[in-house]
Structures are given as structure tokens and as C-alpha cells.
Amino acid sequence: MYRGRLVNNNNGKNEKPPQDVAVKVLHPAVQDDIDADLDLMRLAVRASKYIPFGVFPSLKWLNLEGGVEEFAHLLKLQLDLRREAANLERFNENFRGDECIEFPKLVPGFAPTENILVESFCEGVPVLEFCRNNRDNQEALTRMCNKAIEAVCHMIFLDNFVHGDLHPGNGEC
Fold first, then answer.
1. Which pTM does this prediction carry?
2. 165 included as an active-site residue
């Protein structure tokens, strides 16, 4: 992902202020790298059947091969940024009206492709950094935790559609 800035230059007519954007670009070799990693996972699962001392039979109920294939399927779905664009639109719709939850929005005029996605840039702070910075502010930590739990429950129980990148923002909600 890259941070960029859109500058509208219409020779001084109806000029919009610059807009920070996030540009996601799928690296050309990522498909091959993922395929190689998945092949290694498949090999490890097959090899695990030959571990001595009867370890694998006790793991059989986990369906390791099926788990790897499900993981592979879900991972490959993420390799098309058009799908991520559709997901962003759905999350924005699901959380419209909630001022504390923010998802990036698609930038008009930049249609997503399989390999490139241009979206609004959302400032955020990783959760662990927020917690470190607010370790003495129990009120802010409680607000952040409650809002995160509420958002995850909303995604799971109301929408049946989950996203894993939650950022606490500035902690005011």
C-alpha cells in the first residue's frame, strides 16, 4: 500500500483541495509466492501423517488438509482488489451513521482493477500503540474496547460479514 495525494488541476477553475489517498497495488509476484507457500503447507500436512508415535491420528479430527484448502480459497479471494472494493462499499453501507467506525471509501474516477485500488486514506493508530499511549487513561481504553466489541458483534451477528482491520482512530468515540 502506498500513500498518495490527488491534486486536481483544472487551470484554477473549480479546483478541489488535495486529497490524501491509499493506493493498493498487488505485487506482480504475489500470486506465485502465495502458491509456493500454500504448496509448502500442503506438503507439511501430508508429511505430518508420517510423524511417529501416533500423533497424526489424534489430529485427524482437525481435517488439516481441508483447513489448508479453505485457507487457500479465502486467501486467493483477496488477490482481486475489485472484491476488496466491493467489500469496502458493503462495510460503509453497514456502518453508515456510525460516526466512530470508519472504513476507506472508493475514490471517484479511479475504478478498481484486479491489481490496483485507490481509496480514501484513513488516519489510524494500531491498537497496541493506542493502548500504550493511553495506558493511564482507563476511560479512553474502555471506550475503545467497548466500541471495538460493538463493531465486531455488529459484523458477526447483524451483517454476517467481518473485516479484521479495526483502528481506534483518535479515541474520542
1. 0.73
2. yes
* Nearest residue to 109 (alpha-carbon basis) of 100, 96, 118: 118
Annotate 37-57 with DSSP letters as a single string. Answer: HHHHHHHHHHHHTT-TTTHHH
Task: State mean pLDDT over 64-78.
Answer: 89
Residues 6+ apart with CB under 8 A from 60: none
**Is residue 30's pLDDT more than 80?**
yes
Start-to-end CA span in the chain (Å): 27
Task: List b or e across 57-92, with b for residues whose CB sees 16 or more CB atoms inside 10 angstroms.
Answer: eeeeeeebeeebeeebeeeeeeebbeebbeebeebe
> In this structure, which long-range contacts are made by residues 12-19, counting pairs with CB atoms below 8 Å and at least 24 apart in sequence?
19/107, 19/120
- Determine the 3-state secondary structure of 9 from DSSP: coil
Q: Which residues pair with 120 in a beta bridge?
A: 21
The average confidence (pLDDT) of the chain is 87
Burial class (CB in 10 A: 0-12, 13-18, 19+), 144: buried
Alpha-carbon Rg for the chain in angstroms: 21
State pLDDT tens for residues 105-123: 999 999 999 999 999 999 8
Catalytic-labelled residue, pool 33, 35, 39, 165: 165
Question: What pLDDT score does 108 carry?
Answer: 93
